[in-house]
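Ticket #4471: structure output looks truncated?

Reporter: J.K.
Steps to reproduce: submitted the chain below (295 residues) through the standard prediction queue, then opened the result file.
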Amino acid sequence: MAKTLRSLNGQVVAITGGARGIGRATAAALIAQGARVGIGDIDAPLAEKTADELDPAHPAGMIGLALDVTDRDSFTAFLDEVERQLGPLDVLVNNAGIMPIGPFIEETDACAQRLVDININGVILGSKLAIERFLPRGRGHVVQLASISGKGGFPGVATYCATKHAVVGLTESLRAELRGTGIEFHQVLPIGVNTELYSGVQQARGFKTPEPEDVANAIVDLLQTGKFEAYVPREVGILTRLQGVMPRRVVDTIIRATKGDQVMLSPNHGARAAYEARMEQTINGSAPAKQPEAA
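Returned output as attached by the reporter:
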């Protein structure tokens, strides 16, 4: 017998880093399910433009707002405004993240700090603020955009991998700590997705590059079924679980065979130019910049 899917109609969802990429695709998928969606982004005009493009008449209710996930006042104001305009929050999707690529020894301290601030502290802060709202209501969902990098390690993105391991550990811990409260936790672990964050990077051998819509559909499925985690594509989850019981030498052989140890070492910086320019602004604080979606 097929399991009955939960309806998302009328659910109020807040998405961080929602102006483009995975965040935008997730907003579109949830609007299609009848949810009311607030997207937050460091690039407020783009967030507003995205909301207008995805839901021009706002029949289901969609808004685009300013959000700096590293700032408690900004994050609180974002969630307050989502609730003021759309209703009590049902779901938070922690999507914002950045992914610099390069040798670990060449990574600046400012870059490492910004990675931690956005990819870890932003997720911790968002989770905390959402849980504070959910506990009195006895319900709510927190969806974390982790990555297959949260289950392994890849040359060229060492600190990024460390941040994604932290997201996985945080989500596993909160799921156990808050079991029985009515609050549900979900994590999505994609391989590199066809977004600007992954631009200029060759995909691992044997895996098709997923689209943002594939990740968005996985998020919808988690919310409808109540499942805890989803790998995108699904095959990478099977391989990851198998690697957990294999001898290390076999795992290393598989990684080399799929070129998982090489994909991040020689990115096409020309193809990544637009993304890297925005990321440089984000790291150095020279101008308002988009916090690109997690992957």
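Triage note (M.O.): checked the attachment and the full token line is present. The two ends are 34 Å apart (CA to CA).
Status: closed, working as intended.
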